[in-house]
Amino acid sequence: MKKNMIVGQSGGPTAVINSSLYGVITEGLKSTSHIDKIYGMINGIEGFLHDTVADIRKEEHLHQLDLIRTTPGAYLGSCRYKLPEDLTDPVYQTLFQKFSALDIGYFFYIGGNDSMDTVSKLSKYAASVNSTIRFIGIPKTIDNDLMETDHTPGYGSAAKYVATTVREIATDANVYDNLKSVTIVEIMGRHAGWLTASSILARKFKGDNPVLIYLPESDFSTEDFVAKVEASLASTPNLVVCISEGIHDKNKTFICEYTQSAGVDSFGHKMLAGAGKYLENLIRERLHVKVRSIELNVCQRCSCSHLSRVDLDEAENAGIFALHCALQGQTGKMITFCRNRSIPYELSYGTVDVNLVCNREKSVPSEWITQDGSDISDSFIDYVRPLTQGYVELPTKNGIPLFAYRK
Amino acid sequence: MKKNMIVGQSGGPTAVINSSLYGVITEGLKSTSHIDKIYGMINGIEGFLHDTVADIRKEEHLHQLDLIRTTPGAYLGSCRYKLPEDLTDPVYQTLFQKFSALDIGYFFYIGGNDSMDTVSKLSKYAASVNSTIRFIGIPKTIDNDLMETDHTPGYGSAAKYVATTVREIATDANVYDNLKSVTIVEIMGRHAGWLTASSILARKFKGDNPVLIYLPESDFSTEDFVAKVEASLASTPNLVVCISEGIHDKNKTFICEYTQSAGVDSFGHKMLAGAGKYLENLIRERLHVKVRSIELNVCQRCSCSHLSRVDLDEAENAGIFALHCALQGQTGKMITFCRNRSIPYELSYGTVDVNLVCNREKSVPSEWITQDGSDISDSFIDYVRPLTQGYVELPTKNGIPLFAYRK
Q1: Residue A298 at interface with chain B, using a CB cutoff of 8 Å
Q2: Which pTM value belongs to this model?
Q3: Are residues A19 and A116 in the same domain?
Q4: What mean pLDDT comes out for the span A322-329?
Q5: Quick one: which of A82, A234, A350, B144 is 20 to 30 A from B289 by CA?
Q6: d(Cα A84, Cα A375) in Å, to the nearest integer?
Q7: How far apart (Å, rounded) are the C-alpha atoms in residues A263 and A265?
Q8: Where is the site described as Important for catalytic activity and substrate specificity found in this chain (chains A, B) (predicted)?
């Protein structure tokens, strides 16, 4: 008996989250014997609660399908909405009434660990009311911090963006190589340093910039930092240092929190600066060298300028695989990536109980961080490099990438 | 009679300044009947004064020549050094003694208006001592603010970077389109708004983001700004605004200067924030909406990620043309771009007395800025678009762009 499917996106965007959307939709369109209508939640489960649902088979969406595949951000829009812990909360009854009204048989949610919490709760409630709706989570996050999977869609392209950008910044830093200078690059990652670690790919040779790399997985000592920077300047006059936004000291106080004493602006707001800005001032104060800090902006999560072909294809395949798993009757599962080998790179797709993923975070293993916490070990390169490979030619108009968008 | 040539780079880097270096060197290598040795000044005229000169015909440089063409930054290194106004200053005698010692017949300097000042002074001194050395300036700057030329090498690629990045940022801003938000993007350009103006290319349709664009060519009113933002939010809930770093009020006070009252950080340093940060706080204070500011980092001047084929080729041709002009006996000149037409785009190369260029700045004409100073007129698009066209395939290794560098 035919049923309808619905798909939503949740959490922060990535460069390839729409490729997963493309995968699950195109495969849904093919599955004519099981799937009738294809709905999209506008702004995730939160939007769905307000009945903002799109019929994806409408021409306005279908004619953009190919474009959606390489458009960064979230085509359906996103949300940060946590369902109540108490499954007797009326919101669940409301949601399932809406599911029935739309004759939903298959529910797909593309997101990170918070989004998997939504999949977990909905599948648990479904079991408690003997609903036959299948709930499948499709992973995405530039943070690469999901448990039970080798890596996450979105990480490879973000890592490639960071590596390329840091190499460009290092080139810029070398322009006045007759002066000593320090450039501190702050990279996204509050609790996991996967993205910051990828900056090691920017090194052109051993000892090249970024000479120092700090992750939130190690306690950060400002004194060790100043000493390391001073020592590194001797061999690298234009030093580039990469740090995660979430670096913290041994008391688990975020370094950026120390900037909150920085005073208020003319409106009386606290001037909140990042860890990079704090360390910039620290180095200037202590070493009296030219120093600047650069906070990589949202493009590290939303740029399609350095798409990894491997990442884009895996994201699409995750969507395709999710649809097959749902049709096979699986529910309460998240799609996982299992790496068979790194060289040559070989991947297979699987599923895992979503409860093993939601509300947990995967850190960078200590064996990939050097003893003193100021660098990444080369063995990490074998892990990350395959995920950043391959070029994707983007559709462009007048030289600027062409993006899909909801009219 | 054969002579030697020397080339240097000066001022801030661009994505294609090395393409001009590639052009003048490769053409010099071909001119075997007139040119013998090819020298490179390391860190411009300042480095030359300290005898940091490279023999470009050495294998370590020659084998990287093709790579140099697409490497951003300044392969020879740069400087910000102003020669004394007084031509009787002993530094000129010193310089020309060094020129003679190296048997220099041709001097090429790749840079902006400060660098053209160096070309001007050296050529004037040469005339005063009857030196036969020919001094030619090769323009470069992402600011596009040089007089007497339609545009400058480096601007097209920077404009393409800004347009693409702003479109990506706008896509990211739309992810939570159930909430109102303002994103302020601060773009380089202290006195001229050419680069900020190029953000108009990010618009996918009329009325699309960036809805508001502010250049330093117009006086900025914070009251008008708040009103414009509030009005624009009605039709564009996720508003993106682009501003030049150099926007100023009618008293010519830079908006960023108002942040200097922002207080001191924990080291007692003034917290200097940009105009974007100031306006972010202003909008939060006055309109109580979600607001963030993004300062585009140095990549807008050093990224090769959005190279314009037109820009790269024109930069190389400027180097080639410069060598021919020198061989023809021209001196004290800068290479100029003369646009014959925009559609189809057609360019010819010329020269101009460097004294008409140095220490002057070209602003965006008022007819390309809307009456209220909050937007760019569509006619500007016909000017800028041809400069951003064409794709350049970069040499890569393991998926990351390969850059040339001095060993």
Answers
A1: yes
A2: 0.96
A3: yes
A4: 98
A5: A82
A6: 41
A7: 7
A8: 114
